[in-house]
Design a protein that fits this description.
It is built from three helices and no strands. The protein has helices spanning 14-30, 36-58, 61-68. Helix 1 packs antiparallel against helix 2 (36-58).
């Protein structure tokens, strides 16, 4: 028997969730003392913001035409 997957309906888009997570991470990092944990949290927040931007860029209407013409 296979395990049943948990499926979640999200109220917000992936971009919105990533940006919200990054905002919360930056708030937590501000309250932390300088150190490795704080730097890692700030790095992950930046990665989430970049991922959000890339996802938005990849789903933009202009990129769809590029893919249809044989772009990667």
């Amino acid at each position: 028997m296979t395990a049943k997957r948990n499926r979640t309906k999200h109220d917000q888009s992936l971009q919105q969730r990533l940006l919200k997570w990054a905002e919360n991470a930056r708030d937590r990092a501000r309250r932390m003392p300088p150190g490795k944990d704080r730097e890692m949290l700030l790095r992950r927040a930046k990665q989430s913001e970049v991922t959000s931007s890339l996802t938005q860029w990849l789903t933009a209407p202009g990129i769809q035409g590029y893919r249809e013409r044989g772009g990667s």
